[in-house]
Amino acid sequence: MTRLPAGSRADAAVGAFRTCPRTAPEKTMPQGPTMIAWKNEPGRTARCPACGARDGQTHSLDVTSPLTGDTLSLYACAGCGSRFYDPFVPFESDRFYTDRHIQYYVEAGAGIGSILQPLVSLRLAPGSRRFLDVGCGFGFSLDFATHVLCWSAVGVEPSRMGRAGKAALGVAISNDYLENIPALQAARFDVISTSEVLEHVGDPAAFVDMLASRMTPGGVLVLGTPNAELVAPETDAATLMGILSPHFHTVLFSERALRRLLDRFGFAHVHVAKTGHQLMAHASHRPFRLEPLPRRDPLVILKYLMDAAGRLAGRPAVMIGFLYRALTGATHLGLYPMGARIAPSLRRAVAAAYGLDLDDHAAVAARLDAVTDFEDLGGRLPYCLFGIYYGLGMAALHVENDPARAIGCFDMGFAACRRFLDISLENFAEAAHLLWIMRLKGGMARIAAGDAAGARRAFGEIVAAAHDPSPYRGIAPPPHVLEQARDMA
């Protein structure tokens, strides 16, 4: 998911469908779960952008924007189950596309796997393909489609993010709104992708109509958008704030509403899957083949990430972003030897870009302590620092057989998770996900090192946080981590 400041992938598509932006006042921001106040007040009148229903809506929650301090009201639609803001108060996204935010997106924020997997799982007949990504952001999908799938790929992204990606990756990105680009008016495409855009659009039907009009007769639309079902108290605060994204997301679709929207435009063949925080739809007027991701598909993406890092060695932030995702991808797949082979290149890239030795934990800790805000963070440390330490720790534990080194990595990763979440809860959902996994793995490494007392302290901290997560921005240990900690304590 693209985290706040959102809007890049949306701006490319919205054009005439968006409303006027506003300017933010200076206000003190609330912290943690206090940003969200659950209401559940039925019987309200408000128009749902997904289906047009007005009556019997439920005032679901109020959320305070971490950018403006304003409080916005979110409603649950009685007609289709979607969620939407009323009134929706938009924000001018390009004001927040500083160099640091682009760096964040490239190093950590872009969900490259979630962007690429729907393309990999689509099994098309052999032959050249024309591919359009509407709201392509930095252009990762275009780079992958060009170098791996051998498609003819173009993207639409008018923001600074698109200009930066065009320069860095050398991909074809038009820096304007789709309806303003003459060369794309008559063009037709075999695959059109739009990821994390629909939720920003004030008129979703007009937007999908525009995309459908640019498809070949057998073309496939690939559409990803946050899942409204995850707007629930049990969703962790970091993920929930990213989904809500006040001032940027206007409507969050339910699966039922998304299917209705695609049916409305005559897509006879529709597949909708729930993947992570997203609904991922493939839709076409003709039959298409979509396969569950076999093991080889993540390896295709891993190879792309490593090859891209080699191609872009002269661009430190881009190289770090690719290597970080390759390291964590290999780690999540249990390919620890591959992660260990990636680690030295990533260490060198961080040293070259930041003048920082990742093994010098005292120096890293000093920089963490000195960070003042989100912008300052990117000048001192990689935005993906916490995930780097997780991958390094797993390599030390499973390949190098060095539990002492693993302990240092997991402890630094845990400290980085906490500091990053203090700085920006909504931008670091991955840090929230890894926080207690990092502590659990640190306890296991202490067992391997013969430090039973240290292991008990680590597991005890996890158990205590389940009762009171407030010191950790409200991030409680997930059930599977808590169960393991209790068993091992």
UniProtKB/TrEMBL annotation:
Transmembrane regions listed in the UniProt entry: none
Residues of the signal peptide: none
InterPro entries the record matches: SAM-dependent_MTases_sf (IPR029063)
Pfam family of the protein (one): Methyltransf_23
SUPFAM superfamilies on file: S-adenosyl-L-methionine-dependent methyltransferases
Name of the protein this chain belongs to: Class I SAM-dependent methyltransferase
Species this chain originates from: hydrocarbon metagenome
